[in-house]
Amino acid sequence: MIRFNRYIGLILLIAIVLSHSVVAHTDKIPSPRKLQSAEFGNQIRYFDTDSLPFYLFLTIILESFFAGMYVFFAKLSPKVILLVVLANIVLYPFAWLTFPRLPVSYESVIFMVEVFAVVSEAVFMYLLAKAFYPLSFRHAFIISFLMNMGSFLSGFLI
Hints:
By secondary structure, the protein is mainly alpha-helical.
């Protein structure tokens, strides 16, 4: 148990440092605000990197809640929630700093980010859990799908 906690603590520390460095250095990444605005039909899209930490925090809260519901009903270990938090800390900044810069419509960006989130978070949780807690890929994928669908649908309410 102590060995598990040390590894999780180390992984969490590395994930926080990496995600903080990505978020803190977004001023070095060309923002669409500094470039010409991308027009898609009659929609002009700007991506605001200043609000990324707030939305990351909100996503962690929402997705932990939805994953927690599945963990409770499937009678899995509550340690799975830690995997959800780690997956979001590592993958959320990458997704939202990469995909919005592609020259595609806003709807396409949302679709690509959600597909990326479901698949990459499922793989991330499965591989990380494989070393510490027996979590099947099926459970990891269901958790990832439910939590991303829940946060996506909650976005319409906010």
